[in-house]
């Protein structure tokens, strides 16, 4: 994908699964702890054992990358290319040690520049994850289009969309 400042994207390989699973586990568990209570662990199925990354990053028809900053592995991104200019952001996962420093916004800009033919971006995020809502809506320009299972703390999902010019 290329370099933007000191951030580089490198295609995901099976060898990346173990170190990324450690990052993903820390990221999801920290988010759950912040929004659902101290010590709470939560994430999508397989986030903490490598199955999620294997299923969607290696075995699926996706564009999956590791994210490196200053030579350190800091996260991953998975993108699904749909038909008619639609793109689905499967995830951006960053190590909690580098969150809240503008790095995610820089990564999103890199993703947009990688896929200039995108007419619409879609993603979803847990209803409880207020930091994600702020990131996607306020920082990246997504709009909330639907809430699935509203009021259900474990199942509530925000569906987001960003229409490109």
General description of the model:
The longest helix is centred in the first third of the chain and has 20 residues, at 17-36. Helix content is 31%, strand content 33%. The chain is α+β, with helices and mostly antiparallel strands. The protein contains four helices and eight strands. The protein has an eight-stranded mixed beta sheet, with helices on both faces.
What features would you highlight for this structure?
alpha+beta; 8 strands; 8-stranded mixed beta sheet; 33% strand; globular; 165 residues
Residue stretches low in confidence (pLDDT < 50, at least 5 long) are none
Order of helices and strands: EEHHEEEHEHEE
Backbone structural class: alpha+beta
Strand order of the largest sheet: 1-2-3-4-5-6-8-7
Oligomer description:
single chain
Helix content: 25-40%
How is the main sheet built?
8 strands, mixed
Name the beta content range: 25-35%
Instruction: Report mean pLDDT, rounded to a whole number.
Output: 90
**Shape annotation:** globular
Helix count, DSSP H or I runs of 4 or more residues: 4
What's a quick, concise take on this entry?
The chain is of the alpha+beta class and 165 residues long. Helix content is 31%, strand content 33%. The protein is globular.
Note the topology:
Layout: E1 2-4, E2 7-11, H1 17-36, H2 51-59, E3 63-69, E4 72-81, E5 86-94, H3 103-114, E6 120-126, H4 130-139, E7 143-148, E8 157-163
Parallel strand pairs: 5-6
Antiparallel strand pairs: 1-2, 2-3, 3-4, 4-5, 6-8, 7-8
């Amino acid at each position: 994908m290329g370099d933007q400042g000191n951030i580089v994207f490198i295609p995901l390989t099976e060898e990346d699964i173990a170190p990324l699973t450690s990052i993903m586990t820390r990221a999801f568990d920290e988010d759950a702890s912040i929004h659902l209570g101290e010590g709470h662990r939560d994430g999508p199925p397989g986030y903490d054992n490598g199955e999620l990354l294997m299923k969607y990053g290696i075995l699926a028809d996706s564009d999956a990358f590791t994210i490196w900053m200053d030579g350190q592995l800091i996260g991953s991104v998975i993108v699904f290319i749909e038909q008619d200019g639609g793109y689905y952001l499967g995830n951006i996962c960053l190590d909690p040690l580098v969150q809240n420093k503008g790095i995610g916004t820089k990564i999103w800009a890199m993703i947009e520049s990688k896929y200039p033919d995108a007419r619409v971006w879609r993603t979803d995020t847990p209803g409880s994850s207020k930091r994600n809502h702020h990131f996607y809506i306020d920082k990246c320009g997504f709009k909330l289009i639907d809430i699935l299972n509203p009021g259900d703390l474990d199942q509530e999902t925000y569906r987001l969309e960003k229409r490109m010019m």
